[in-house]
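Final report, closing paragraph on structural work. Over the funding period we assembled a curated collection of sequence-structure pairs, and we close with a single example.
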Amino acid sequence: MVTNKTLKIVDRFLLPVVIPAVLLMLWEFLALKGVLRSTILPAPSIIGATLYDMVVTGELWGHLRTSLWRVIQGFTLGSSFGLIAGLLISMSLRLERSLLLVTGILRPIPIIAWVPVLILWMGIDEASKVTVISIGTFWPVLLNVIQGIRSTDRKHLEVARILGKSRSTILFHVVLPSALPSIFTGLRVGIGIAWMSVIGAELIAASQGLGFLIAYARELSQADVMLVGVACIGVTGLLIDILLRCIEKRLLRWNVNLSGNV
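Its predicted structure, as stored:
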């Protein structure tokens, strides 16, 4: 007899891998039958063998470590500035109005458009790449912080004021806890944009990193190496997102909307 615990395990861990497994088997079958050209889309078994060789030799880890360190630096800077700016803007309508034109012009600019500009200003060293990532991370964090703070339940604020709580107490014990779900949403979106930003920067100007690996493999027509780099980006981004969700769930145990999530 199938128990509820078994059904929960199947629903949580097995179902998410069914469709990817079926797609991989179909991909392998079509590649073996020659429907897919190996020079364009190699079979998963070939990509897996290439991945194994690159892991054993340490080549993949070197590129991943470089990109990951750039993402960590840029994400930390961008999210920190986004959090601080979001707090200041959300608490001052005058400041928001004064920055309305500036933010309205800068926010729609694609991240990739900043890459040549920052290379001209800062050169092709690490500073330009980290700055690109910071810019990409800044906007989603900023917008979600503002939205989260301004969505605080007015009843909670009124109760805190009636009890005579100071502004700092209201901020750290009422406003910020209420805004945390929105802030974590901004962080998760920001880390995704951070990965896109670093790959875009490395594709244009870099001698190390996953973006450089993909660009160099394209020049050598090594489709398997390119797809290893692409898969590595996806898996790493997924693991970081899972980590953020676990931290969010631990910090926000009171939030019923997170029940059942990773």
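The domain at 69-251 is CATH 1.10.3720.10 (MetI-like fold). The mean pLDDT is 83. We thank the funder for supporting this effort.
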